[in-house]
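Section handout 9: paired folding examples.
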Amino acid sequence: MRIGKIVKSNTHVDYVCQIYGPGEVADPAPSPEDYAFGTFVRVELSAGLSSYLVGLIYSTILMNPEFGNLGPRLSPPADLEVFSPDYLREQATLVGIVAVGQVVPGGTHQGVPRLAAAVGAEAVTMSADEVRDFHASQPGDGLALAYAPLLLAQGDPLIPHLLLTVVNRLGDLFPDHARQLAVLRGNLAWKTAVTPAG
């Protein structure tokens, strides 16, 4: 599902995506479940390239410029849609996306992607098959999670929780690797419990 467009970046791997609102896309507007914490998304690169960034949604920001503005209104919000259809709605939902790799015609690359997304690039949720293909190691049926050190180096307290969410999802997609994922899950669970305590 198309969830939004890139509006800025904080670093080479950290993007801000504005979620589509009602009437901005022909399809139904995305629901909060479509851009939930830990959702894998693909961010299209240049139109001529058949490659995309793979990212994870790790944060949500609600923008409401009207908060704290207690002054009188000339028109109530319901009347603005009728009398001022060109009125810009300034409220927005933004999500943070951290890029964890790139898919190119020759295969996949996990870690810091070589290319960056452009402003206006569309973010689309990835299917289970796309997530499975991105994590399948090159020799065949193995499981690769080479971007985990990149995420842990970010220093954000939500990252261990993000990785736990990813590991739980990968457990459903790679049932043959349950033992390896259980070890990683235990390590991350310990880190989420101990790191905040100092």
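Moving on to protein 2 of 2.
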Amino acid sequence: MNFQRGRTHEEPEINLIPMIDVLLVILIFLMITTTYSKYAGLEINLPTAETQQSQDQPNEINVVVSDQGDVMVNHAALGSRDVATISLALRRAQGNGNSTKEPVVIISADAKASHQSVIDVMQAAQQAGLSHISFATQSTNR
């Protein structure tokens, strides 16, 4: 038996306004209670200096590290990349110098060379008894 003749069924609807009000209250609560911390960073300005070229050139040992990790000492390619071979080549290059000053090891590493390759050259210089190390960089024209 159909007692509800003539009555139409109303479609149920969801009222979104109370849900939006609750979400806005939660959002405001989170914004007020959240602490915003500023991450500290190191901002450094490197010193600059203008010097004249000295006439007395020190004894230099040029070490080149390629992007593949290959090492050259005074334009002579080394067959191995291990620290002992590099150290031996540095000792030989140190013996070639006529100067009484301790030679300066100038490391010219490719920008894409691995960090480990450069550390290996520095460790080899330490093993060879060379304490003066310098890094060659490319100057930017401003």
